[in-house]
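[step 3/7] inverse_fold.run input=structure_tokens len=332
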């Protein structure tokens, strides 16, 4: 995280926080500003934000507050939305802008903020629906997905204590094509954001036909699709978790697999049940940091928070959102 923080400080981005009456959000925002990793934009009623900051013992000096109770500002945002989304009726726009998550998404879509981070008091579904309501999908992407960056104390993987989990937050039961898309998007994100050489494991209860049912068939189909779409990607499946990350077990369960088995740095779960349970187990039992989920497949940066996020988790997500927004600006 020190390396990532140094990258964020090179060009700190404006990160809008629509849950700015939450004490932990304010503490993380203060830390982000003090560390220089982002320029927090607090979204909410200015009086309520001030009162929340006083209760949390947070100094708001230097932090921008956008007051959503300001009628003039709301009208200005409505005009901006109408110009960017001419197909959307003004009535529909005004209705959406009653939701702080939608206002934050619009600020990002219109370029008045570079990234949004929310989810401490909202569900992932609420955050992704608000984001997707104003931030378009990237070209060629069928729907938004998500990934976590996990930092697991004591884990000794190819990237030290860190590893990527996907999709643990959005897609309930991806089909084979969507599973391949998750793998490709997570690999691209890890390569750009963390400078990793992606090695993607498509997880299952089976390793190389040790078991078989429709879920295994789906993973195998996803592997074929991903390899066809992204021929240079190091990806393999189906692999059990231990075969994906433990070299000695990989040697027994997947002999001859040199690129991914035992060395995976990106784990793609077959469905949301498996992914969500897995990341929460690792987070709670191993006392790991779970940064995210970060949405994949949008044209601009929006990140979710688990409602159980700590201040450190929130700060990590703000830092990574700032880096992701930097990357978005560099793309052609």
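[step 3/7] decode complete -> sequence:
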């Amino acid at each position: 995280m020190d390396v990532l923080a140094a990258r964020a400080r090179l060009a700190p981005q404006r990160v809008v926080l629509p849950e700015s009456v939450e004490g932990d959000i304010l503490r993380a925002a203060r830390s982000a500003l003090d560390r220089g990793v982002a320029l927090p934009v607090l979204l909410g009623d200015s009086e309520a934000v001030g009162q929340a900051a006083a209760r949390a013992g947070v100094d708001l000096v230097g932090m921008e507050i956008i007051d959503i109770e300001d009628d003039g500002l709301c009208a200005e945002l409505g005009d901006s939305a109408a110009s960017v989304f001419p197909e959307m009726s003004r009535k529909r726009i005004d209705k959406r802008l009653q939701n702080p998550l939608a206002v934050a998404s619009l600020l990002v879509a219109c370029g008045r903020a570079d990234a949004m981070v929310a989810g401490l008091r909202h569900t992932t579904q609420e955050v992704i629906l608000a984001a997707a309501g104003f931030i378009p999908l990237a070209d060629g992407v069928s729907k938004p997905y998500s990934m976590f960056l996990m930092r697991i104390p004591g884990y000794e993987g190819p990237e030290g204590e860190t590893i990527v989990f996907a999709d643990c937050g959005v897609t309930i039961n991806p089909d084979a094509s969507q599973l391949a898309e998750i793998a490709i998007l997570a690999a691209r994100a890890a390569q750009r954001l963390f400078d990793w050489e992606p090695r993607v494991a498509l997880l299952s209860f089976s390793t190389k036909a040790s078991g078989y049912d429709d879920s295994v068939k789906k993973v195998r189909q996803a592997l074929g699709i991903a390899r066809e779409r992204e021929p240079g990607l190091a990806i393999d499946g189906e692999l059990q978790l231990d075969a994906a990350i433990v070299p000695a077990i990989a040697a027994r369960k997947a002999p001859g697999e040199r690129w991914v088995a035992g060395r995976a740095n990106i784990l793609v779960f077959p469905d949301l049940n498996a992914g969500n349970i897995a990341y929460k187990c690792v987070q709670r039992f191993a006392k790991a940091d779970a940064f995210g989920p970060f949405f994949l497949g949008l044209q601009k940066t929006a990140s979710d928070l688990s409602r159980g996020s700590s201040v450190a988790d929130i700060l990590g997500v703000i830092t990574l959102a700032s880096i992701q927004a930097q990357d978005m600006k560099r793309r052609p």
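[step 4/7] annotate
The chain has a mean pLDDT of 91.
The longest strand covers residues 289-296.
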